[in-house]
Amino acid sequence: MPAVNLPFFSLAGAALQVDALGEALWLGGVIYVVRIAAVYAGCHAGCWLSATPPEHRKRIWQAMITQARIA
What we know:
The chain is mostly helical. The protein has one domain (18-71). Helix content is 77%, strand content 0%. The protein is built from 4 helices and no strands. The chain has helices spanning 2-14, 18-49, 54-57, 60-65. The longest helix has 32 residues, at 18-49. The protein is elongated, with a radius of gyration of 19 Å.
């Protein structure tokens, strides 16, 4: 695997246009904010529908932020 990863990531890094990252930064920020808001709203609604105790409702969304999205 190192024989494949080293050339691939070296060539991908050499072809990266750094100025394009700056132009797309705002889009990354929007996606970040929308994702956090959606996780919070979904957790709040789920806790409300399932009658979860209030001490769990306050913090459950924070545990969901680090979950990997596998789809």
